[in-house]
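Can anyone check this?
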Amino acid sequence: MTNRVSEHPSIPRFPRSGAAALGFAPLLPLNLAAGRLATSLARRHPALFERLGEQAGKNFVIDPTDMPFVFRLAPQPQAPRLRAERRGSAGAWDARIAGPLAALIGLVHGAYDGDALFFSRDLVIEGDTAAVLALRNAIDNEELDLVEEGLALFGPFAALAALPASRLATLVGGLAGVALTRRSGGSFA
């Protein structure tokens, strides 16, 4: 497999100036949120990680190629971990899924077809393809909505956070080029 991701015009890219600014941002707040998200997903969607079976012991690197960091996912059902790491310091992995942020988000919401992205070279898969396929099937089965999952982190205050979260999702989704929720439909492009 190649590391090259094509410049397919239909997949929006995160603005370079925004990505450059994020390169200076500390990862601690992102890692705190990512860790809570993984724990919440395991509680709210236990089948997501259980469905991985033997693949749950694998390390996945999810690489938004237009961002200055990658995400490492260790999806053990009882204690899944998700954390951001600086690009180039991700270390060893079993499987790597790389593509523009919009494509990766669109895969979660079903706005983009993973096979089409792969064959157009907008999505690169390296390493253990069986593990990637198991992860893809588990995510597809759960029909996740990133805004709803983020709101769940607020617990009893989720209703208060809904309007600001919706506005933030619209702003960030506009920058990323793809909706952060299943409710608003697919791409912003």
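Reply from J.R.: I decoded it. The mean pLDDT is 85.
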